Amino acid sequence: MPDAFTADGATVVVTGGASGIGYALAQRFLREGAARVLVADRDPDRTRNAAIELGERAHPVTLDVTDEDAVASAVASIEEEHAPIDLWCSNAGVAAGDGLGGDADWEASWRVHVLAHVHVARALLPRMAERGRGHLLVTASAAGLLTQLDSAPYSVTKHGAVALAEWLAIRYGDAGVGVSCLCPQGVHTPMTAGDGADSATRLGGAYLEPHEVADTAVSALREGRFLVLPHPEAAEYELHRSQDRDRWIAGMRRAWAKLRGAAQGGTRSR
Ligand SMILES: NC(=O)c1ccc[n+]([C@@H]2O[C@H](COP(=O)([O-])OP(=O)(O)OC[C@H]3O[C@@H](n4cnc5c(N)ncnc54)[C@H](O)[C@@H]3O)[C@@H](O)[C@H]2O)c1
């Protein structure tokens, strides 16, 4: 188990922090007493506005997480100008590609959902290991434990995110660096705003609000857990998948056939 993380007095960075789950994480860590939260996102105006809304302990950082040099200089300058980073929430994400998608969808998904976590791991985890403390929270998805039937690029790269987070947890745990992996099912955010009744994300059941996801993340970090499951039933689905892969695939085929029926009813949105 990673060491427990508590936000009180901490320096926290949240990528994708200007919206949805990232914004809720930033808000919740501030409420938990974080000394500062760096809200990192790619659009300068949205990032600045989010930090203003979050209050005086929030600071905007314009950052494209797919730019490795920019990530490395953000890590260095945050640590120089503020304090050593206690928690980096690698949360930015994109919804790219319907079905098998095009190569550009795979490229975008790979860069944001996998390489961005590699970039921050290279820049920050050696610093944390040297200090013997620190935590990385990777936002993957239940799609990374199970699947996401609407989008192959999303599903496959989120599997990559889970695998990378596990690898980092194993390799850095003995150095005092904790790694956790946040795997929600549906959450009401701008990313899912266009989901119709037939969206595959709805297969997982009810959508949560971002603040509920943030609540689960804070508790799981406090308890030092690797896997953060705002929808606890995802653990059960994953168990079924691992116990009998053929049966699980057959069940998912039935679910897809049902969704296709709903799509013919005309509610499909992405
Ligand atoms: N909403 C859901 O149902 C759901 C479910 C499971 C996992 N997730 C994951 O949660 C994370 C947050 O998603 P959300 O639902 O809050 O979506 P969102 O669209 O509200 O927020 C995503 C944020 O990431 C930022 N971003 C995208 N690419 C970036 C880049 N290259 N550099 C910096 N910032 C970038 C966007 O600007 C945006 O502010 C994502 O990783 C997403 O895949 C979401």
TrEMBL record:
Pfam families registered for this protein in UniProt: adh_short
Keyword Secreted: no
GO molecular function per UniProt: oxidoreductase activity
Record's keyword terms, sorted: Oxidoreductase
All copies of domain Ketoreductase, residue ranges: 10-185
InterPro entries the UniProt entry points to: KR_dom (IPR057326), NAD(P)-bd_dom_sf (IPR036291), Sc_DH/Rdtase_CS (IPR020904), SDR_fam (IPR002347)
Keyword Transferase recorded: no
Residue intervals passing through the bilayer: none
Family classification: Belongs to the short-chain dehydrogenases/reductases (SDR) family.
Protein name: Short-subunit dehydrogenase
Organism whose genome encodes this protein: Haloactinospora alba
